Structures are given as structure tokens and as C-alpha cells.
Amino acid sequence: MKFVDEVSIFVKAGDGGNGMMSFRREKFIEKGGPNGGDGGDGGSVYLEADENLNTLVDYRYTRRFQAQNGRKGGSTDCTGAKGEDLILPVPVGTTVIDAATQEIMGDLTKAGQRLLVAQGGWHGLGNTRFKSSTNRAPRQTTPGKPGDARDLKLELKVLADVGLLGLPNAGKSTFIRSVSAAKPKVADYPFTTLVPNLGVVSVGRYKSFVIADIPGLIEGASEGAGLGIRFLKHLARTRLLLHLVDMAPLDGSDPADAAEVILHELEKFSPALTQRDRWLVLNKADQLLEEEREERVRHVVERLDWKGPVFVISALESEGTEALSQAIMRYLDERAVRIAEEPEYAEALAELDRQIEDEARARLQELDDQRALRRAGVKSVEEADDDDFDDDDDDEGGAEIIYVR
């Protein structure tokens, strides 16, 4: 199934049914009085998080959705039938944005969570409602109110505890295959990963976490080069970032240079994202001799002035991956305890999450605007008008070092 993480749709709630004007007409009963019923309410439109979905592809080609209108009121004081609500399933992790105002309407982060996005129209009143002691035969009714109509933008951010960062061929897919049952494509050429992959890592009974592998970044990714920039937003909700670096590049390049490229692109995409806890993982240790490993690790740590944890592993040989997985589980458990016991810490993390989300959305919107301008043949923002931004193209202390055993 094709992975789609951004779509634009139009939703229309049902209109309310009109009130009925009717009078009682029966044999031997003169001037029976009004008996027109109210109309039915229009159906509303809801989005509901479904844990069985992992893509928004269902909304790529079908983009207009309308709930059922309420039925007109009937005679003999019969109320019209209410329009049926429309419930649209979306993946867990979907953010709903009003396209007109850019306001975030809601965030569906739990299975079964439901969000009202278009309220059905209120029913009209039948003429029975207007009967009074001075108005015995009212000929007044009210029409049903129109239902809400909205253009929405849906953005999917995968929900994972741990996110993987790295250049193409750093070994991210091999790592996720090594520690989980996920089977992303692995090959000896760049950009084998085209969409985010999720894997569940089990580290004991009732102990597990979810890890996300996104397409590799390249230099210039923050300006739109390569694939990874479109998927960096999926790291916004992770709790920990693993920065994978190939410590034995085939071209003989300096691993520290590769690490600096990622740090630079991350900073340009979202400065707040660089404040997320991040561990350095030096991969492909099996390609080096023991003395070469130690020298290479020391060089990278000193060059980056890295203060956090450093892990040396071989994802291909599954060396060091178990120790890394156990360390991640301990970190996540300790983090959960701190959130529960320290309100200030929890609020600081929540504020960081909001900042990352805002910066990521602003950066991606900026890239979309630049792309729209290029297609319109406009060289600068000053030359552009609003029509130039219409875009219907959806294509898309010291370091702690843990060595392999």
C-alpha cells in the first residue's frame, strides 16, 4: 500500500430538514389546527483514529465527503428523520488543520478518539410550533440551517518512541531489521528507504518500544533536496533520536563529516528538534579492527564534542544491538517516571513538542510555497500574488561509550 502522509479534503455536514406546514383534515373535524412537524437535524462529520490504518492513501483520490441531510418534517406532527453522521477513519497520529485559517482543530493520538470537524445543520420548525391562543392557524415555518463546510488538511505523523537519523546507507534499515520483526528494504545503493518504517522492539516480557526509520537525509535536505526532509516531521513526536553514523564508509570519507551534515540539516529544519535527547550510534563496527574502532570512535567524539551516550554496534551482525535496546528501554521507563513525578519536567517536554511541531509545519509550508513559485515562474515572494501559492500537486560531562561485545 502506498504511504501518504498529507492530504487535503473537503467535508460538508448535512443540512437540516425544513419544517412542514400542514393542517389537520379529518371528517367531521372542522378547523383541526396545525400539525406540521419539525425537520430532522443534518448529519455531522467526524474523524476517528483507527489503529488498523497507517496511511492516508484512501483520501488521495476521493476528497469530497458529505453527511446525510435531515429529512423534511411531515404532517400529523411527524418529525423528519435525522441525517446519518459520517465517520471518516484516519490513522492514529493524524493532525487535523482548517485550511482556511491554518488552525489546528485537533490531534488524534489514541485509537478510537473522535473529532467533530463539521456540525450538522439545525432542523427547521413546523407550523405547529407557532400555534398560540391568538394564532390558531399559523402559516409560518422555518427552513433547516445549512451544515458546516470546511476544507481540511490532514497530516500524519507516525507515533514512535525512538526515531532514526542518518545519511543514506548508514544502516538504519539494517538496524531496525536486527532489533525488530520489521522488514524494510535493504540494498547496497542509497535511498532504498522511500517511506517511514515502524518496528516494535521487544526487550523482555511486557517490555517493548516502537522505533521509526525515515528515509536518509543528504546535504541540502533542509532546502528540499532528497527525500528525508518531507519525513522529518515524523520525528516530532518521538521521545529519543538515534543518530546512526557509518563508521567505516566505503569511500574513505570522515564519519564525523557525515554526522555534521545531519546536525546541520536538523538545525535548519527545526532548531527545537536538536534539543530532543539524541544518542550517537556508530554502526558497521564489524568493518574495522579493534584498534581501528577505538581510534575512529575517539576521533568522532572529539570532532563533534559529543557529551551524550555513544554506542558502537554492528547492525548486520547484531553486535551491540541488544545492549542498545536495553538502554533505550531504561531511558523510556525513567522518562515516564519523571513525567509522572515532576510537573515542571512534563510541561517543559510538552512545550518542546509544541515548538517542534510549529517549526516543522512552518518549514514545510515555506518549502511548498517555494515550489509553487517555481512552477508559476515567479522568482521572488515580492512578485507573487495569492494565486501563485495555490498548490494542487500532491506528489510528493564526558561521553559514555558502550562498545560491542
Rg value: 29 Å
* Overall pLDDT level: 82
Helix content: 10-25%
What gap, in angstroms, lies between the N and C termini?
39 Å
Summarize the main sheet. 7 strands, mixed
Task: List the strand order in the largest sheet.
Answer: 10-11-9-12-13-14-15
The low-confidence runs, each spanning 5 or more residues with pLDDT under 50, are: 187-193, 391-398, 401-405
Structural classification: alpha/beta
Strand content: 15-25%
Q: What is the number of beta strands?
A: 15
Order of helices and strands: EEHEEEEEEEHEEEHEHEHHE
Sum up the overall morphology in one term.
elongated
Total helix count?
A: 6
Notes on the protein architecture:
The protein has 405 residues and is of the alpha/beta class. It contains six helices and 15 strands. It has helices at 58-61, 172-179, 255-269, 290-304, 321-341, 343-376; strands at residues 6-12, 45-50, 64-66, 86-91, 94-98, 104-108, 114-118, 149-156, 162-165, 197-204, 207-213, 240-246, 278-283, 310-312, 401-402. It has a seven-stranded mixed β-sheet, sandwiched between helices. Strand 10 and strand 11 form a beta hairpin. Helix 3 (255-269) runs parallel beside helix 4. The radius of gyration is 29 Å and the shape is elongated.
